């Protein structure tokens, strides 16, 4: 076996192991709450959250789940008691945000807020109707200090969507109390289920405590009362399946139209097998990865028209299409970004804006090059140009971390802080301020210099223990699952699914007009 074949086999084995780990975590999230909670839910004649979503979606249509690993590595269940994603209802691409009542009663924790907020952002920037499947006990009270103040943004987001002409629909399957009552209250269309939905600012016990009034749940906030008396319900369903039928009917009557262009290029599959991406994705991020090999397995017909191939060769730029949608590509070729790469990127981003072409960033970078020679060569100025261009570019950006994403390279390659429309991660990818060994080494150098300045001996044994502890911590905090658990991406994806995921994202993006920034770039330091 050749060295390349051995490396491919090692990459594949490592990726499959990580994918198996992800499958285990995904299965936990898909199961919902405990067996007893699920049994109680079933005994009440209720559908699970994923059954509700499946009935709501068009038959055999895809569902791009978002942030499925939210809350991983925390005290809260994986998935953060909520399911969000992009699906197709009556031929319309929509965002679905659904409480899972089998997980702590569907209560919201800090990661639920992050996940829900991300879904709102995607709906607003891509002009997608927003469907809420509501059954929640409100805030997770032990963590109310982290929920109460930022939680109000969710209601604000619903009103902002409506104000922009983006429809909001609430299907209420159970309790929606206290602050949760404002979800249907601030939605354009509301469906409640007779005898099941309960929507009130305060339940009977709190009403008793606050006012002394004796009230029953049905009179206080039942679906029938809201449909006939308060007017808070637009439709009264007889059961869950009927509520879903009415929800589909509402979407059908939106008369929704995409404002972006449809696919304009041949959408033929790549010439190279996407299965081979498992062989290419480096298990050891120090291994080289030519992004052209990745592109050959995700873009239409493996066609890639490279821009400026002889200049700034650590960054690959060029034009392609995915499922018929034209894209511009910026992809790291050798990890480190030099002055020429940054200049090339800034120019290419401007070209994409002139032609209203969405941009795909394939991250695999250790950052911008450092050292006396490169500082004198103007790496700060060039890097600033690149980051300026990324920051002010108006065309949609999609980012996929396929390897490393360290330091300011994360910023220049459109990391989370730069608001890409979507950001996905391969299981092997890592992201941090720098590599674990480098960071531990920097701290060691600083510690030695500090000891020398104070005239003290340097404790080599303590320093070695510190380096090991720091390396272990930074390594753990740079892994894909850790970052995805904190909703720093929109999901970890199987490399073989990259083309499909990007196609779904591009289709969603084109619900809104796609137009670049043709002037007003600000000052470039030249």
UniProtKB/TrEMBL annotation:
Coiled coil: none annotated. Residues 273-519 form the CoA carboxyltransferase C-terminal domain. Pfam families: Carboxyl_trans. InterPro entries: AcCoA_carboxyl_beta, ClpP/crotonase-like_dom_sf, COA_CT_C, COA_CT_N, MCCB/AccD1-like. It comes from the Bacteria. Residues 15-266 form the CoA carboxyltransferase N-terminal domain. GO terms for molecular function: ligase activity; transferase activity. Keywords: Transferase. Signal peptide: none annotated. PANTHER family: ACETYL, PROPIONYL, PYRUVATE, AND GLUTACONYL CARBOXYLASE-RELATED, METHYLCROTONOYL-COA CARBOXYLASE. This is Acetyl-CoA carboxylase, carboxyltransferase component. It comes from Blastococcus aggregatus.
């Amino acid at each position: 076996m050749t060295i390349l074949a051995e490396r491919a086999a090692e990459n594949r084995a490592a990726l499959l192991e990580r994918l198996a780990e992800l499958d285990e975590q995904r299965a936990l999230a898909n199961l919902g709450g405990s067996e007893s909670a699920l049994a109680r839910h079933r005994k009440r004649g209720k559908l699970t959250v994923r059954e509700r979503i499946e009935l709501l979606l068009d038959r055999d249509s895809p569902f791009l789940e978002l942030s499925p690993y939210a809350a991983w590595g925390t005290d809260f269940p994986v998935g953060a008691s909520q399911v969000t994603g992009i699906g197709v209802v009556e031929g319309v691409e929509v965002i679905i945000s659904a409480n899972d009542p089998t997980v702590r009663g569907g209560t919201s924790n800090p990661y639920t807020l992050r996940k829900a907020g991300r879904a709102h952002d995607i709906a607003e920037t891509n002009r997608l109707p927003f469907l809420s499947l509501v059954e929640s006990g409100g805030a997770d009270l032990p963590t109310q200090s982290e929920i109460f103040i930022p939680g109000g943004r969710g209601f604000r987001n619903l009103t902002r969507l409506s104000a922009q002409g983006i429809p909001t629909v609430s299907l209420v399957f159970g309790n929606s109390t206290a602050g949760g009552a404002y979800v249907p209250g601030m939605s354009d269309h509301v469906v409640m289920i007779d005898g099941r939905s309960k929507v009130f600012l305060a339940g009977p016990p709190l009403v008793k405590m606050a006012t002394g009034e004796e009230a029953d749940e049905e009179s206080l906030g039942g679906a029938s009362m809201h449909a006939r008396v308060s007017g808070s319900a637009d439709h009264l369903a007889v059961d869950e399946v009927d509520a879903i039928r009415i929800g589909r009917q509402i979407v059908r009557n939106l008369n929704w139209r995409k404002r972006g262009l449809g696919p304009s290029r041949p959408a033929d599959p790549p010439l190279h097998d996407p299965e081979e991406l498992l062989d290419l994705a480096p298990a050891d991020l120090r291994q080289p990865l030519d992004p052209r090999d990745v592109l050959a397995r995700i873009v239409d017909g493996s066609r890639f028209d490279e821009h400026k191939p002889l200049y700034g060769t650590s960054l690959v730029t060029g034009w392609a299409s995915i499922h018929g949608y034209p894209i511009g590509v910026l992809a790291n070729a050798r990890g480190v970004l030099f002055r020429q790469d940054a200049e090339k990127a800034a120019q290419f981003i401007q070209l994409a804006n002139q032609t209203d072409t969405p941009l795909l960033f394939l991250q695999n970078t250790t950052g911008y090059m450092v050292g006396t020679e490169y500082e004198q060569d103007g790496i700060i100025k060039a890097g600033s140009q690149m980051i300026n261009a990324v920051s002010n570019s108006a065309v949609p950006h999609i980012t996929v971390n396929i390897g490393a994403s360290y330091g300011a390279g994360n910023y220049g390659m459109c990391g989370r802080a730069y608001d890409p429309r979507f950001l996905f991660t391969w299981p092997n990818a890592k992201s941090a301020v720098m590599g674990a060994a480098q960071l531990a080494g920097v701290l060691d150098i600083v510690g030695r210099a500090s000891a020398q300045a104070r005239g003290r001996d340097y404790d080599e044994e303590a320093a070695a223990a510190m380096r090991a502890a720091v390396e272990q911590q930074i390594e753990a905090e740079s892994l894909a699952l850790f970052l995805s658990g904190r909703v720093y991406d929109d999901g970890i994806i199987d490399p073989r699914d990259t083309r499909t995921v990007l196609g779904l994202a591009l289709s969603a993006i084109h619900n809104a007009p796609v137009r670049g920034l043709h002037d007003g770039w600000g000052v470039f330091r030249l």
